[in-house]
Specification:
13 helices; Immunoglobulin-like; single chain; mainly beta; 46% strand; 22-stranded antiparallel barrel
Length: 1033
């Protein structure tokens, strides 16, 4: 028995030694193959199992009990997966290569980076390839049609003009509605400034950044993604990441040159030529005579004919002579002038964009890495006198000299000069005047001087000349962001960052002698100077730990932000000569003003993320903000979020679907975010006083605003549920449903006049947005030399006003804001068409629409639609074959209405005799009894109301736009290496190629209207075609 025991003990000891020999501990470091930097969070898994570990903040890992015969799989989103057989290796160092396709799976979140697989929130990303394929001085405009749920309204095609961006609808009525922009971890001041901002001639802050410098743009949408930004995140967050250095040395040069031209637009919005114009003018006069006679009245044609004893017959010849007498135009047969004023004020613009970038770094982990770029952009716009020039320089630097310390900085310096070419509002705008002017008027007189004998004294071509109107803006901008990272342990590090966004806006405006307003004052000049500094300090403590199959990330942070703003304005008139137009040369002082203010925001925040077995994910965040915008009673406010995600495909019961269902997750989030941009300024909660109320040379002041110390933050509660599917490892589907509810909306509520004030800011309103988004992308063809990828997206948002300051709706002439309705609802007198017998207009008399009237004043207002689209999205497609690539993008919008407020003037029916008519009036007018027409009869000063506000000018806003087409060819690498280059590519790109709109739309572009849906004389969004060359060394 004793021998048996000894034998068993020996066998057990031998078996233990064998088992110990069959497993080992593997250690190593994982670095980025491009720049040698350590990679955090890379997973190493034993192939065929779920057993794995992750790298720490230094890229190091330790894997115990690894069988020698096993294979380790190293994975990180955005990089190519690498498999390595263990064998007898105790140390395995790995260099992961970046994967251009997989990079789209990286999500840049608030104060960090995560992977799409682990992200519990809702976000959409755009990589640098999608941005580089389009030409746009404002890079944010490249997001239109690419990001589901993002609505963009561009009211002007002027170079550098801003866009209005709504992420999942508009979340406030009277307060800030634009998203927060974060560049390389630092918030950016994106509000429009300047004396021309109210005339839609402002400069976008984003135009200071070169598109070639951008690595990616991420749009954060739900509470999980945005709540950590707290008081600034109610309207979503757009995170811009710029390029960084890598090991080695390379130089890339890019050149783009091309032309831009007027967009396509339907004949209905075009001006009439000479023959059509004369025909319609005479018809308006004769109709007025006949119409008034039928009513037993005297027309203005008759009145002027008799009062001034003109003695003109009521014939075509008499009407022609009266037109010349009344308008001052030369209507004689010897005047063969046929001026197309739109062609005269526009041109084929010239575009140039050149950039050079240098990036590199040493081969060691401790070596410095750098990225530097210089960019030059010059755009001569389609409207004469309007152009933009920009110089920008970027330098990004990173270095980790030891395992403990890493530091770096980001720098962007830019100078932009934009010539906007017009002052004095819409009436002096060249597009407005081009629509109005008669084709009988020449641009210049026979003696070569400018012709000012136009219908209103304006000559828009003269105004664009050297001595014409001036409106220039020079923007100097600096974005600086140094940082320092201290690694206390392999799991714990501190990151401190300082961000500076400073800009100076220097503006000059001049109303010249060559326009009526300026001529009456002998010229008027104005200067405005705006300086703004946004200083941000951010400190975060980050802890990352893996234990078993669990991963835990914890972040604690503090952030402080201060904004200092100052502006001055000065104007004067009465110049001695027209070419010395600096304000200092004026002899009559105008107005002068200054403005100076500061804003402070202080915050504490935290976030925790936990995952188990790559199957279960939880996240939560909390932020506590204090803003100087609010009084002491409600200065601080908390914001929070919770998110969860579940990966079904990692369950054993789903193993039978592995051949077709590559990945399937469901996720949900709920939380709050805030809006501190309440009221009409920075001091909605404060008592404000105004000085300058002087008496007998004694200074005096008066109260300007009654403060409300109880004023609170507007708060948006966000709920989101979504699914992510991957089919056959080729097709990816993402779908989300969201419900956002904004409460405590700030209104200026009327109060008793006994207080000395008329309004008082209070939290009283509520608004909701709910909807769904879907995006589908797939690799239709995936072969070695041939690929075809397609992506589709669409979104629907339902906006509803829940509560206003009173029970009464807010009514306008054509709009209404009331509970239960969309914020952009149209309510106006509804057009019922043209009376076939009389040619006069009809409107619906009551709200039920069962009775019509030709008396505009007795017609009832009715709900006639909304500006918000029913559904919108886009499609992109890319083919690659050998060295060739071909792609295109389509944008679409379905439903919604546009109210052509400009058409009330442009589509006049003879009231403004002498002004040109629109082709829509000419083609669709009533001519004789029995005609079924869209447009009433034209009649000179008939006193009718067809051009009053009504749904006659309401149009379908739907469109399909060919946003871009690009074709490129890259020389084979073996060819270019023989020429001393790394890459060589030529390309041909076209933007804003063609827009298909509804037949009743009369305008330049339905996508170029702001969110209210009201169309004015908008600057056309140009189409352009660019030839590009990219060379890498």
């Amino acid at each position: 028995m004793k021998k048996i025991r000894l034998l068993l003990a020996a066998l057990l000891l031998f078996a233990g030694n064998v088992l110990e020999a069959q497993t080992s501990t593997v250690t190593g470091t994982v670095v980025d193959a491009a720049d040698g930097s350590p990679m955090i969070g890379v997973t190493a898994v034993i192939k065929g199992t779920r057993t794995g570990v992750s790298t720490d903040i230094n890229g190091k890992y330790e894997f115990r009990n690894v069988p020698p015969a096993s294979t380790l799989v190293y994975q990180f989103i955005g990089y190519k997966t690498q498999e390595i057989s263990v064998g007898n290796q105790a140390v395995i160092n790995v260099r992961l290569e970046r994967d251009a396709i997989a990079l789209e799976e990286v999500v840049i979140t608030g104060y960090g980076v995560t992977t799409k697989k682990a992200f519990t929130g809702a976000a959409s990303g755009v990589n640098k390839e999608n941005i580089a394929n389009k030409f746009e001085p404002n890079p944010i405009k490249n997001l239109l049609g690419v990001v589901p749920g993002l609505q963009m309204n561009t009211g002007s095609g002027q170079p550098g003009a801003p866009s209005t961006v709504f992420i999942r609808g508009r979340n406030s009525l009277n307060s800030g509605t634009q998203p927060l922009y974060v560049i390389d971890g630092v918030p950016m001041e994106s509000d429009s400034h300047g004396m021309r901002a109210t005339e839609r001639q402002e400069v976008s802050a984003l135009s200071a950044i070169s598109s070639d410098d951008i690595e990616s743009i991420t749009v954060l949408k739900d509470a999980t993604a945005t709540s950590i930004y707290g008081a600034r995140a109610a309207n979503g967050v757009i995170v811009i990441t710029t390029k960084r250095g890598k090991k080695g040395f390379s130089v890339n040069f890019s050149a783009k040159a091309g032309v831009e031209a007027m967009p396509n637009y339907q004949r209905g919005y075009k001006s009439l030529n000479r023959t059509e114009y004369l025909e319609l003018s005479k018809e308006a006069l004769m109709n007025a005579h006949t119409y008034a006679a039928g009513l037993g009245k005297t027309s203005y044609f008759d009145y002027y004919n008799n009062a001034y004893q003109l003695g003109l017959p009521y014939t075509d010849a008499g009407a022609t002579e009266f037109l010349g007498w009344y308008s001052g135009l030369d209507v004689s047969e010897t005047n063969t002038n046929n001026t197309d004023w739109m062609k005269e004020v526009t041109r084929n613009g010239v575009i140039q964009n050149y950039s050079i970038e240098v990036l590199g770094g040493g081969n060691e982990e401790s070596s410095a890495k750098y990225f530097a770029s210089l960019d030059y952009l010059d755009t001569k716009a389609i409207v004469r006198g309007k152009d933009m020039t920009r110089y920008s320089f970027r330098f990004n630097f990173d270095q980790q000299p030891s395992k403990v310390v890493k530091f770096g900085f980001n720098t962007n310096l830019s100078y932009s000069q934009i010539n906007m070419g017009a002052g004095g509002g819409y009436y002096s705008d060249p597009i407005t005047q081009a629509v109005m002017q008669s084709p009988l008027s020449p641009v210049k007189n026979p003696d070569g001087n400018w012709n000012f004998a136009t219908i209103n004294g304006y000559n828009p071509v003269a105004q664009r000349s050297e001595l014409g109107d001036k409106s220039t803006a020079k923007q100097y901008r600096a974005l600086l962001s140094p940082y320092l990272q201290i690694n206390f342990t392999k799991d714990l590090y501190l990151l401190s960052r300082v961000g500076v966004d400073a800009f100076i806006l220097d503006e000059f405006g001049y109303w010249s002698f060559l326009q009526p307003q300026g001529s009456s004052m002998k010229g008027m000049g104005e200067n405005a100077y705006t300086a703004n500094i946004l200083l941000t300090t951010t400190n975060t403590l980050n802890y990352m730990k893996q234990f078993g199959q669990s991963n835990l990330n914890i972040l604690l942070g503090q952030e402080g932000q201060r904004t200092n703003y100052k502006s001055t304005y000065l104007s004067g008139s009465n110049y001695p000569v027209d070419y010395l137009n600096e304000v200092i040369n004026t002899s009559t002082p105008g107005s002068a003003s200054t403005d100076q203010r500061s804003l402070i925001l202080n915050s504490f925040f935290s976030r925790a993320e936990y995952s188990y077995a790559n199957k279960y994910y939880l996240s939560g965040s909390f932020r506590y903000d204090a803003s100087s915008r609010f009084g002491s009673n409600n200065r601080w406010a908390p914001f929070w979020s919770l998110g969860a995600k579940y990966r079904l495909t990692n369950e054993t019961f789903m193993s039978g679907t592995a051949n077709w269902l590559s990945d399937a997750t469901v996720r949900a989030s709920y939380g709050t975010s805030g809006n501190q941009q309440v009221g009409s300024g920075w001091f909605a909660s404060r008592d404000l006083y105004d000085f300058g109320y002087n008496y007998n040379s004694l200074p005096g002041s008066g109260r300007l605003q009654l403060g409300n110390p109880d004023l609170r933050w507007e708060q948006t509660k966000k709920f989101n549920v979504g699914v992510d599917l991957s089919l056959f490892k080729r097709i990816n589907i993402t779908a989300d449903y969201y419900n956002h509810n904004t409460t405590d909306m700030v209104f200026a509520v009327p109060i008793s006049r006994t207080t000395g004030m008329s309004l008082f800011y209070q939290n009283i309103g509520a608004l909701s947005n709910k909807g769904f988004e879907i995006s589908i992308s797939g690799d239709i063809i995936q072969k070695e030399n041939l690929t075809w990828t397609v992506s589709l997206n669409g979104a629907k948002n339902i906006n509803k006003v829940v509560k206003l300051s009173t029970d009464l709706p807010i009514t306008g002439t054509t709009t209404i804001i009331e509970p239960g309705k969309d914020i952009y609802t149209f309510k106006m007198k509804e057009w019922a068409g043209v009376d076939p017998q009389t040619g006069t207009g009809l409107w619906y008399k009551n709200e039920t629409g069962d009775e019509t009237t030709n008396n505009y004043n007795t017609a009832a207002k009715r709900y006639v639609g909304k500006a918000s689209p029913d559904f919108q999205g886009g499609m992109t497609s890319t083919f690659k074959w050998g060295g060739f690539d071909f792609g295109f993008q389509l944008n679409y919008s379905l439903g919604g209405k546009i109210y052509g407020n400009n058409l009330r003037y442009d589509e006049h029916l003879g009231m403004s005799l002498g002004e040109n008519f629109r082709a829509y009036v000419y083609d669709n007018r009533w001519k004789k009894p029995g005609d079924i027409a869209k447009v009433p009869m034209v009649a000179f000063m008939s006193g009718r109301s067809e051009n009053s506000h009504s749904s006659r000018f309401l149009m379908d806003a739907s469109y399909l736009k060919i946003r871009s087409i690009n074709l490129g060819y890259s020389l084979p690498k073996e060819w270019v290496k023989g020429m001393g280059m790394q890459s060589f590519r030529i390309s041909l790109n076209a933007d804003n190629v063609y827009t298909f709109s509804s037949k009743d739309y009369r305008g330049f572009d339905p996508s170029g209207i702001d969110a209210t849906g009201v169309q004015w004389w908008n600057y056309p969004i140009p189409r352009n075609i660019m030839l590009g060359l990219s060379v890498g060394f």
